[in-house]
Amino acid sequence: MKKLIVEAMSATYEILIERGVLSNCASFIAPVVRGKRALIITDTNVAPLYLEKVKASLTKGGFETYSHIFTAGEQSKHLTTVAEIYDTLAENEFTRKDFIVALGGGVCGDISGFAAASYMRGIDFVQIPTTLLSQVDSSVGGKTGVDTKYGKNLVGAFYQPKLVLIDPDTLNTLSDHYFADGMGEIIKYGCIRNAELFSTLENVDINENIEDIILECLKIKRDVVNEDEREGGIRMILNFGHTAGHSVEKLSEFTLSHGECVAKGMVMIVKASEKLGLTENGTADRIVKLCEKCGLDTSTDFELDVIAENAKNDKKGSGSDLNIILISKIGSSFIHTVNKNDFALYLSK
Ligand SMILES: NC(=O)c1ccc[n+]([C@@H]2O[C@H](COP(=O)([O-])OP(=O)(O)OC[C@H]3O[C@@H](n4cnc5c(N)ncnc54)[C@H](O)[C@@H]3O)[C@@H](O)[C@H]2O)c1
Ligand SMILES: [Zn+2]
Question: Which of 88, 143, 144, 268 is the most exposed place for a label (fewest CB within 10 A)?
Fold first, then answer.
């Protein structure tokens, strides 16, 4: 079993990674929770695949187990779903001692974490992420929340889980599309902090080495978040590729997936910064090749000035400034502040 300890300002918890751990989850959950009652929250795709396994382990471990299943997809990530979860908790007389288990992808983790943060002003929760994206990214860092009609992740809370349990075997049922999506973030981690991870990704069979790859990514996310739990400084490097990426994601009206857009965003910015002499030559080519290996298309149909214009509303800036993340070479990133009106100069096809 691979183990990582996250020491956030507000809490310390472990991330455990092991194939097959789902069937034995109760033995790892028992030591970190206070109560004996668990609400497993999951979605309509994950429930038929893994709910019974988790339930069986918890029941065997002496827990009284309940479940709440919501319709899979980002469209469920809103306050109505959270309200329904509050009702399930209240109907079953959950108290502050009881806990929630989030079994699913990033949508499930974000919703469940927010419900846990707010029900009775906070109850324990455990993350069991089942998508590659949630295993390397969303289950760690403490960001929870939902979308409103005015924007994505507009309402939420910083709230840390008691434990993150990762079973890489769950990736066997994940579609190629969502696997590639997670790879976008994994490539990002290599770019911003770990040249060795990047060359591993270039050279090995990714599926076969996924456990080690997940571990390396989580170390990076943990270290960056530890340094800056509430996102005032260094945590911004996690947004590499995201300013232009979010813009493309919005312009595509969310028909393109997040990881795909991050891949496009990384390539656009590195191509430009290479031309500006801020990045080692040949870096963009390496990123393009690796993205292609992972099934991520890095080309962009939208005009660069349209992408830049769209990015002006990005929340990651203050006043007329925009903080963009650049890399000097694979593995080394820095924050670069530009005038919002100049952002197009930092994009290239
Ligand atoms: N909190 C954070 O720090 C953070 C970071 C990044 C992204 N996010 C959020 O994460 C969400 C995206 O996460 P996601 O891509 O995991 O989306 P998701 O939870 O919708 O999962 C993607 C799809 O895969 C299905 N699925 C999940 N696990 C599966 C499995 N093992 N086998 C087969 N199918 C499975 C789901 O039902 C869904 O259809 C977004 O809402 C985003 O805002 C949060
Ligand atoms: Zn992202």
Answer: 88
Is residue 280 classed exposed, middle or buried when 0-12, 13-18 and 19+ CB atoms within 10 A define those classes? Answer: middle
252 by DSSP, 3-state: which?
coil
130: Cβ below 6 Å to ligand 1? Answer: yes
Enumerate the H helices of 123-255 as residue ranges. Answer: 132-133, 176-193, 195-203, 210-227, 242-251
What's the CA gap between 348 and 346, in Å, rounded? 7
Active site residue 185: yes
The predicted pLDDT at position 229 comes to: 66
Q: Residue 311: what pLDDT?
A: 87
Q: What is the pLDDT of residue 318?
A: 65
According to DSSP, the β-strands at 124-129 and 163-166 are parallel
Residue with tokens 């309940």: 66
Dihedral of alpha carbons 8, 193, 210, 152, sign = positive
Task: Out of 68, 143, 162, 188, pick the active-site residue.
Answer: 143
Judge if the beta carbon of residue 310 lies within 6 A of ligand 1: no
Task: Kindly list the structural domains of the chain, giving each domain's residue range(s) and its CATH number in brackets, ordered by start.
Answer: 2-173 (3.40.50.1970), 176-346 (1.20.1090.10)
Rounded-to-integer distance, Cα 269 and Cα 165, Å: 34
Contacts of 72 (CB under 8 A, 6+ apart): 43, 44, 45, 46, 107
Determine the distance from the C-alpha atom of residue 85 to the mean position of all C-alpha atoms in its chain, rounded to a whole number.
22
Residues of the chain with pLDDT under 70: 229-232, 314-318
- Euclidean distance between CA atoms 149 and 81, whole angstroms: 14
Task: Return d(Cα 111, Cα 187) in angstroms, integer.
Answer: 26
For the segment 247-256, what is each residue's pLDDT rounded down to a tens digit? 999 999 989 9
Do 260 and 44 touch, CB atoms closer than 8 A? no
